Amino acid sequence: MSAISLSSVTKRFGSSEIIRGVDLVVNAGERHALIGPNGAGKSTLFNLISGQFRPTSGQIFLNGERSDREPPEMIARRGLARSFQITSLFARLTVFETVRLGVMANRGIRFCFWRSAVSHREVTNDVDGLLTDVNLSHRANVLTGELPYSEQRALELAVTLALRPEIVLLDEPTAGMSVEEAAQTVALVRRLTAGRTLLVVEHDMDVVFSLCDRISVLVHGRIIASGTPEEIARNESVNEAYLGKAAH
Ligand SMILES: Nc1ncnc2c1ncn2[C@@H]1O[C@H](COP(=O)(O)OP(=O)(O)OP(=O)(O)O)[C@@H](O)[C@H]1O
C-alpha cells in the first residue's frame, strides 16, 4: 500500500516548468529520502504533497485517495504533517507553550475542540509526553528563541508530531548541525517515526544512507532513480548527476 503516490505530476511557475512529470511512490511505513542538487525542486515537491501548491497537471494520492485538489488543512486532517521552521515565529513563547499550540491545533482538527470541553490536564499530559519524546522536558519553561539550534529543531519535531501524523514530511532535519548533533537527530527521527511513513529531504548523505529504507533522486524536476540505498549508491546516472558531485 502506498502512503504517498504521485503520477505524472508537473508544476509550472509562469513559463518555467520546475516539476516535470514526477512519478513517485512512498510505501506505507517506510522511511524515504528525497535527494538532489540545489534547485532540483525538492521543496516544490513537498509543497505539492502537503497542499501548499496545486500541481499544474498530474495526480497525487494519500493512502490511495486523490489529494491534489485539497487545501493543506484537509491534507493535515488526512494524517499528513510537515515540519516548519517555527521557532522564529514563536520566539517569545516558552517551549511548553509552543508545543501546546500544536496539541490544541490537533485537538481542534480532530475532536472539534471548540465544542467539547477537553480538560486542561489532558492537553498538559500530551505536551509533557511530546517534550519527553524529544528530550526537551528540562527546557519546558525556556523561551523558544533562547534554545540552542539543535534543540530548536527538536522542538519543531515535537510540534510536527503533536498532529499525530501517519505521514511525516521533514525538510533537512539535520541542516546546520555538528556531526554529533546530526547523529542524535537521526536517532530521534528514527525512534519517533517508527510505525509512521517518513519522506525526508536531506543533503547529508550519511544521514540519508543510515536513516532511509529507500531513496528517490530528483534532478531538474525529474526523478532519475528510486531504490534502496545500495541500489542508489551504485546507480551510474545518480553518481554522474549528483552523488559523485556531492562526494566531490
Ligand atoms: N513560488 C515560486 N515561484 C517561482 N519559482 C519558484 C517558486 N518556488 C520555487 N521556484 C523555483 O523552483 C526551482 C526549484 O526550487 P526548490 O526550492 O523546489 O528546489 P530545492 O530542490 O528544494 O532546492 P534546495 O535544495 O536549494 O532547497 C528554483 O529554481 C526556484 O527558484
From TrEMBL:
PROSITE patterns: ABC_TRANSPORTER_2
This protein's record includes keyword Nucleotide-binding: yes
GO cellular component terms listed in the entry, alphabetical order: plasma membrane
InterPro entries noted in UniProt: AAA+_ATPase, ABC_AA/LPS_Transport, ABC_transporter-like_ATP-bd, BCA_ABC_TP_C, P-loop_NTPase
Keyword set includes ATP-binding: yes
Keywords linked to the UniProt accession: ATP-binding, Nucleotide-binding, Transport
Pfam families: ABC_tran, BCA_ABC_TP_C
ABC transporter domain residues: 4-245
Source taxon at top rank: Bacteria
GO MF: ATP binding; ATP hydrolysis activity
Function: Involved in beta-(1-->2)glucan export. Transmembrane domains (TMD) form a pore in the inner membrane and the ATP-binding domain (NBD) is responsible for energy generation.
PANTHER family membership: ABC TRANSPORTER ATP-BINDING PROTEIN, CONSERVED COMPONENT OF ABC TRANSPORTER FOR NATURAL AMINO ACIDS-RELATED
Name of protein: ATP-binding cassette domain-containing protein
